[in-house]
């Protein structure tokens, strides 16, 4: 039996956030991507479901225009050459009624690596406009260096760099069932 109504669900960009955090010196910088599209194709057997997402990397927003411009540059995402980041599922495992593991392939700057997302199913129901929505929260972690994003500045007198390698991802998504 399916946890979610089988069908095609499109991400609602107004109610979805694709966010991240990364260590910077003694704190963490947080940001999000403002432009993306994606769909979930849910099956009666939830483990046969598929997710595809495409993110416009130039839509990065950390709240600081100069930093965002630097992140778009060839030091980081090189958005002129590699404008998109994509994710496509390779498998879904159900852990409980509301917990899943979604494995897939994440591509950034032409490099594809596996990504495991822990997903919490937040519910399904009607909306005020006559549609049906589903909500999930997904978390995961990547190494930016594995994707060729290795710009950094050494910190004088310390045995570390200014920017951490591990990027924490958090996706809060709402998707609408297509008729």
From TrEMBL:
<dbReference type="InterPro" id="IPR007372">
    <property type="entry name" value="Lipid/polyisoprenoid-bd_YceI"/>
</dbReference>
<feature type="domain" description="Lipid/polyisoprenoid-binding YceI-like">
    <location>
        <begin position="8"/>
        <end position="176"/>
    </location>
</feature>
<dbReference type="InterPro" id="IPR036761">
    <property type="entry name" value="TTHA0802/YceI-like_sf"/>
</dbReference>
<dbReference type="Pfam" id="PF04264">
    <property type="entry name" value="YceI"/>
</dbReference>
<comment type="similarity">
    <text>Belongs to the UPF0312 family.</text>
</comment>
<protein>
    <submittedName>
        <fullName>YceI family protein</fullName>
    </submittedName>
</protein>
């Amino acid at each position: 039996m399916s946890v979610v109504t089988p069908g095609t669900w499109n991400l609602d960009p107004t109610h979805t956030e694709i966010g991240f955090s990364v260590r910077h010196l003694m704190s963490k910088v947080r940001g999000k991507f403002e432009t993306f599209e994606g769909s979930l194709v849910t099956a009666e057997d939830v483990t046969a479901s598929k997710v595809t997402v495409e993110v416009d990397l130039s839509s990065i927003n950390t709240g600081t225009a100069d930093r965002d411009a630097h992140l778009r540059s060839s030091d980081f995402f090189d958005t002129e050459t590699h404008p998109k980041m994509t994710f496509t599922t390779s498998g879904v495992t159900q852990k409980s009624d509301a917990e899943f593991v979604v494995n897939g392939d994440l591509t950034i700057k032409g490099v594809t690596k596996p990504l495991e997302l822990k997903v919490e199913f937040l519910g399904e129901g009607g909306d005020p406009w006559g549609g049906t929505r589903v909500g999930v929260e997904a978390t995961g972690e990547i190494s930016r260096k594995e994707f060729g994003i290795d710009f950094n500045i050494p910190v004088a007198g310390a045995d570390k760099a200014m920017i951490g390698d591990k990027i924490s991802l958090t996706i809060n998504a709402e998707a609408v069932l297509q008729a």
